[in-house]
Design brief:
Chains A, B: Belongs to the FAD-binding oxidoreductase/transferase type 4 family. Chains A, B: Substrate binds at residue 401. Chains A, B: InterPro entries: Alkyl-DHAP_Synthase (IPR025650), FAD-bd_oxidored_4_C (IPR004113), FAD-bd_PCMH (IPR016166), FAD-bd_PCMH-like_sf (IPR036318), FAD-bd_PCMH_sub1 (IPR016167), FAD-bd_PCMH_sub2 (IPR016169), FAD-linked_Oxase-like_C (IPR016164), Oxid_FAD_bind_N (IPR006094). Chains A, B: GO terms for molecular function: alkylglycerone-phosphate synthase activity; FAD binding; oxidoreductase activity. 2 copies of one chain form a homodimer. In chain A, 58% of the residues are buried. The termini of chain A are far apart. A 7-stranded antiparallel beta sheet of chain A has the order 15-12-14-13-17-18-16, sandwiched between helices. Chain A has a 5-stranded antiparallel beta sheet with strand order 5-6-10-8-9. A 4-stranded mixed beta sheet of chain A has the order 1-2-4-3. In chain A, helix 3 (59-69) runs antiparallel to helix 6 (113-126) and helix 18 packs antiparallel against helix 19 (473-488). Among the domains of chain A are: 164-248 and 257-280, Uridine Diphospho-n-acetylenolpyruvylglucosamine Reductase, domain 3 (2-Layer Sandwich), CATH 3.30.465; 284-394, Alpha-Beta Plaits (2-Layer Sandwich), CATH 3.30.70.3450. In chain A, strand 5 and strand 6 (173-177) form a beta hairpin. With 546 residues, chain A is of the alpha+beta class. In chain A, 37% of the residues lie in helices and 19% in strands. The first copy, chain A, is globular. At the A-B interface, strand 9, helix 11, helix 12, helix 15 and strand 16 of A face strand 9, helix 11, helix 12, helix 15 and strand 16 of B.
């Protein structure tokens, strides 16, 4: 586990700084390949730090907040505020490089759940918008500092809610405060012999509160399930008081309201504590790479694992395009020799399947691996080297984006999920939409895709886009994203694990119906009558048709 | 699979008829044992058929409903109405034997989801209460014909929604209409090679719509999960129009609204179709009985199976009291010889654990059984005979109640669930509450308990009560049930799989908070503004504190 100390440093996540950009460099061979493959030219845009307006937080509100959290924890300096301005989407990063940006009027840092509750009540009293802020890794505008109809907005920074509250080893439940960053959660749980097993790509920065608020899903979801499956209970600060849920592992005492809080993205309340199912740290792990010939063969393999008891913890299938990018960019591969090796074994369109197993001991792991491989045929094994290469780089994606952007690349991801019988149609529709939108005379986009989460009834699709940046980069990506969302609508979900935020809100009604939007709005009105909580996200104010 | 044809017969479920009472007889040895063990005396109460009042359905409403469903499907005769008056709780059965009973003013039988939608709209127009009625197996008052503030109430009988709509073999999803009774669902799916794997004790009569509306859990939940885990999508008729949910196997597009519909008990809308995950019919099955010495050893075994990969489909642990009842009443056991056999192996307080395995073939089943038994020690095996005896009688409980009631026994069940670390405290508290409430000079109650659903973080507790009936049987059970509910509150959930209905509604606020009740009420107001849907159930009208 990489220890991540920088999440408490308000500057560390300001990705527009040279320090952020130095996190990962683009290897020369990669830059060369991108130029050839996509038409990338050596045009650089200077980084211009965005303007930070004066804080609009009224003096009496500031004093009231300071009385709750302490004067030094109501921060209004430009750098701190800029560090809590939006998340880590491509458009967010563009904004940090010189675009228009929504900056909170102050960053407020309560020490504990009680203080969060009082901050919210104070914001209701002073009619100030509240944007809950955990790791700030949203890629859908979920932590944009929007003020809605309020005169001021604060970022409610949960970094000080960093405690492991309790561990119940009999029930295997741990209660964590919402601001605990995933690596810290793993470190604190490891002292008790436990793991959450939740490893999304945002792992190094994201918080357990954020995971719950957004229905996160980690790379080991085949073994550990989605984050919502781990949530045994929640403690939520709302404008109408504290709300606690979760007395039993399962219940028929009405609808599952925990599942209404999980995924509510700070619009109904601020999650301050999460009770989570934990598991013993596995004693044995193994990662392997297998290559299938073509997408259809790979999908059939992943479906068999999901439906017939694959017993893996990690199942990740790259499509031919992503496999090509991986072989080419990730380094370490003798690409020509590898292709020759695969072709000699009948593989003309390689699709890489990474599998990971975990066991309580080596025998358990071996039994799981046997159960997996019994379901598969027609693959070429690349052994543990390919698996370990994936594992080594699995959190690196976000860090490489700055280097790509420095080189003039538009780089972004988007994701969806659907049932197996529509999976190919969905992939084709999204690919076509993105390619049609982004291809121009001089630009040949790469649209790569993988399945990283599979279920008995379907799977996710995760797309990565690389294309030379246009002169109007915001419009370039906005148009492409809109085209992709329209392609998804009706075929799959608008988000499998990135949540709704600002970006997906326009498509929500198509997915959950006008009635669904009205139901969310009714819950919002009940819990947040004056609308201070995270305005402009998730519930965007469709009024009942009555 | 027992074919159940009588669910379409309106008289078949009128349990007050002699035919109902003849379903199962009480063996002589059981009656003798009950007399000795509980103080039961041979006092019989004559069965008095309850009065059925004149239908209060206004003529214009009747005509409007007949125009939608056909004249012959608006039924107002006394027997049909009585057959749709409440569910199958002990108090319901008492009422059918001569108590006060709420009778619907008509039974309306729409043919399909569209007709259900139009019936609801018509009931809104005529301000008539609607009680959705599936198998009528509620034991918490969920289908009581309450009219709330309306002048009339109809039972919306879903029996004609009996179709398998579609099967998607690639995604392993089947769409079933809500009124399909579980045995019919299994029969129709078996033609495609699939099973739901959902076998609650209500199996012979209950419907898939009812399973979804109440968050049902079946006896094979260790292998197949709770019913809500099978629900991929729902189609719901509401006063504000149809609502469809479920485009993907998992989603982060906001809170999971499907989980708000599942468990909504007809208060938000009437579920008309359910898309369900199905699985191939297992080729191999095996059931065994194991005996542990004492509750603590049995619970430790069940917890190990739930937390460390037991790989069973059925896990059911009886406490010493239930084990004693089972050994004594279920017949076929040479009870004295069995006790001697067990005592010779060190078992002084036997607890029976029934385990069931399913495999795609015999080798798979054997591997699962090995994985299970590796986690267990310190038990005495009773082999497959004990497992098969349980399997044979697993749906018989409800049928035996009439015979027990004929013999003067108060017989009822209740259930809860909690996390492992509180399980013993919860069992002790409920046992004490029931024993204290029901024990008198002449009456020695039996309170038996089992775990039939276990999870990584906790388990359910299911209590069966047998006690000689008092002169005021309604008060006798009402007091005992209240004592049990008060004992549960704060320690566990008020219902693990029986739902809320009328009976548990008073305890809901303690479990989900006043805010939780307000949230349910806000959703109810949004979807059912005039409150026609299932009044008095689940959402009992706590008004917001604002």
């Amino acid at each position: 586990m990489t220890p991540v100390a920088d999440h408490l440093d308000p500057y560390a996540r300001a990705t527009w700084t040279p320090a952020g950009a130095a996190d990962a460099r683009l290897p020369a061979h990669a830059a060369g390949w991108l130029r050839e493959r996509t038409g990338l030219r050596d045009v650089r845009t200077p980084v211009v730090h965005p303007d930070v307006p004066e804080s609009a937080l009224p003096g009496d509100a500031r004093a009231a907040l300071a009385a709750i959290v302490g004067d030094e924890h109501v921060r209004a300096d430009a750098r701190t505020r800029l560090g809590r301005s939006g998340g880590l989407s491509y458009l967010d990063l563009l904004a940090h490089r010189g675009g228009r940006i929504d900056v909170p009027d102050a960053v407020v840092e309560p020490a504990d759940p009680d203080a969060v509750q009082r901050v919210i009540e104070s914001c209701v009293e002073h009619d100030i918008a509240v944007v809950p802020f955990g790791g700030g890794t949203s890629v859908v505008g979920g932590v944009k500092a929007l003020r809605g109809d309020k005169a001021a907005v604060i970022a409610l920074d949960l970094a000080r809610l960093d405690r492991l509250v309790s561990v119940d080893p009999v029930s295997r439940i741990a209660v964590l405060q919402a601001g605990v960053v995933a690596p810290d959660a793993e470190r604190m749980l490891a002292a008790h012999g436990y793991t959450l097993g939740h490893f999304p790509q945002s792992f190094e920065r994201a918080t357990v509160g954020g995971f719950a608020a957004t229905r996160s899903s980690g790379q080991a979801s085949a073994g550990y399930g989605r984050f919502e499956a781990m949530v045994e209970g929640v403690r939520v600060a709302t404008p109408r008081g504290e709300w606690r849920l979760g007395v039993a592992p399962a219940s028929a005492a009405g609808p599952d309201l925990k599942q209404l809080v999980v995924g509510s993205e700070g619009a109904f309340g601020v999650i301050t504590e999460v009770a989570l199912r934990v598991r013993p740290i596995p004693k044995a792990q193994r990662y392997e790479g297998l290559v299938f010939d073509g997408w259809a063969a790979g999908v059939a393999a992943v479906r068999a694992l999901a439906q017939d008891g694959g017993r893996c913890s990690v199942v990740r299938l790259s499509d031919p395009q992503e496999t090509e990018v991986g072989f080419t960019l990730k380094g370490g591969w003798k690409i020509t020799a590898l292709r020759r090796y695969l072709r000699a074994r009948g593989v003309v369109e390689p699709c890489l399947l990474v599998l990971g197993w975990e066991g309580r001991d080596k025998a358990d792991l071996a039994a799981r691996r046997r159960a997996t491989l019994r379901l598969l045929s027609g693959y070429v094994s690349l052994g543990t080297a390919a698996g370990e290469a994936w594992r080594h780089g699995r959190f690196a994606g976000p860090r490489q984006r700055d280097a790509l952007m420095d080189a003039g690349v538009c780089v972004e991801t988007l994701e969806t999920a659907t049932h197996w019988s529509r999976l190919d149609a969905l992939r084709a529709a999204v690919r076509t939409a993105l390619l049609d939108s982004l291809t121009t005379a001089g630009r040949r986009p790469i649209v790569a895709c993988h399945i990283s989460h599979s279920y008995e009834t379907g799977a996710s699709l995760y797309f990565t886009v690389l294309v030379p940046r246009s002169d109007d980069p915001v419009a370039q990506w906005t148009d492409a994203k809109r085209a992709a969302c329209e392609a998804i609508t009706g075929l799959g979900t608008i988000s499998h694990h990135h949540a709704v935020g600002v970006d997906h809100a326009p498509y929500l009604a198509e997915e959950i119906g006008g009635l669904g939007v009205d139901v969310l709005a009714s819950v919002k009105r009940e819990l947040d009558p004056t609308g201070v909580l995270n305005p402009g996200k998730l519930v965007v104010g469709r009024r009942p048709a009555r």
